[in-house]
């Protein structure tokens, strides 16, 4: 069986594709709002040096990635082992060498990768304008905030496609949450 | 040389992979395999199925390995049809 086919089989028998999608949205949203919060914090405190902003954002992105990788791996490994044990009891057989056993070992790592990389990649997308600060006509923080709002909107559109809700409404809903976050941070000033 | 033409197996398997995927995985091992998959009993996490495999020269070891690799457990061989063929 080809590797892609086998991976598809593992995803199907464990139902991991829906779990991975959920983790992508949940931790991706966490990452985007964290970046938005940090950038807004710098924005209202008068735009310090770009390098300081980049380092603060990268620090938070790395922490979110490590947290995402480890927490998802530990929780999913426990869940998959529990499911495998229950199935082995029902089958009265050791399934360690079957597709179920291999999926129980591989899927937690795959889900952990999705959970860890989602906030990292989205954070890098949001802070990327800061690297090109010298070439931008606007303040790099303003562009980064706009990028964060754009990413939040597209996460909402993605959720809309999953749930079958009208994409614009779903996108606007997540955008509203991000704008509300910005408003609360402004009130702190 | 004896060729296996038809085997009827009683198998206990998890709900996933489903019957279609299970039957296709078995059929992939022969150029002329015909596989009939019939669910006989469904429990909370498992199902008992009857699998009929027909072909000109069925490789039984490969079939049992495939069933085990998909999480199934062979309970019994309920029927077999074999025929002898002259050695080439």
What does this structure look like?
The complex is a heterodimer of chains A (189) and B (88). With 189 residues, chain A is mainly alpha-helical. Chain A contains 6 helices and no strands. Chain A has helices at 3-14, 16-44, 50-91, 99-131, 140-163, 167-188. In chain A, α2 runs antiparallel to α5 (140-163) and α3 packs antiparallel against α4 (99-131). The termini of chain A are far apart. The model of chain A has no long low-confidence stretch (mean pLDDT 92). In chain B, a hairpin with a 3-residue loop joins β2 and β3 (46-54). In chain B, 25% of the residues are buried. At the A-B interface, α1 and α3 of A face loops of B.
What's the gist of this structure?
The complex is a heterodimer of chains A (189) and B (88). Chain A has 189 residues and is mainly alpha-helical.
């Amino acid at each position: 069986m080809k590797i892609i086919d086998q991976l598809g089989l593992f995803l199907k028998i464990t139902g991991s594709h829906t779990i991975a999608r959920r983790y992508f949205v949940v931790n991706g949203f966490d990452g985007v709002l964290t970046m938005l919060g940090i950038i807004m914090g710098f924005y209202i405190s008068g735009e310090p040096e770009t390098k300081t902003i980049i380092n603060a954002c990268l620090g938070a992105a790395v922490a979110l990635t490590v947290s995402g990788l480890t927490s998802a791996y530990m929780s999913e490994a426990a869940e998959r082992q529990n499911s495998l044990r229950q199935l082995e009891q029902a089958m009265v057989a050791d399934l360690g060498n079957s597709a179920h056993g291999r999926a129980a070992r591989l899927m937690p790592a795959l889900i952990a990768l999705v959970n860890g990389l989602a906030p990292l990649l989205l954070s890098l997308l949001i802070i990327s304008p800061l690297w090109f600060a010298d070439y931008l006509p606007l303040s790099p923080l303003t562009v980064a905030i706009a990028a964060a709002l754009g990413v939040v909107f597209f996460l909402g559109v993605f959720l809309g496609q999953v749930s079958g809700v009208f994409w614009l409404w779903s996108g606007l809903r997540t955008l509203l949450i991000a704008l509300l976050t910005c408003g609360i941070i402004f009130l702190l000033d | 040389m004896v060729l296996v033409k038809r085997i009827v197996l009683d198998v206990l398997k998890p709900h996933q992979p489903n019957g279609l995927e299970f039957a296709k995985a078995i059929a992939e091992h022969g150029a002329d395999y015909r596989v009939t998959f019939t669910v006989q009993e469904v429990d909370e996490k498992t199902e008992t199925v009857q699998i009929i495999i027909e072909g000109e020269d069925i490789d039984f070891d490969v079939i049992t390995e495939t069933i085990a690799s998909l999480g199934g457990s062979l309970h019994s061989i309920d029927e077999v049809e074999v025929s002898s063929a002259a050695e080439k």
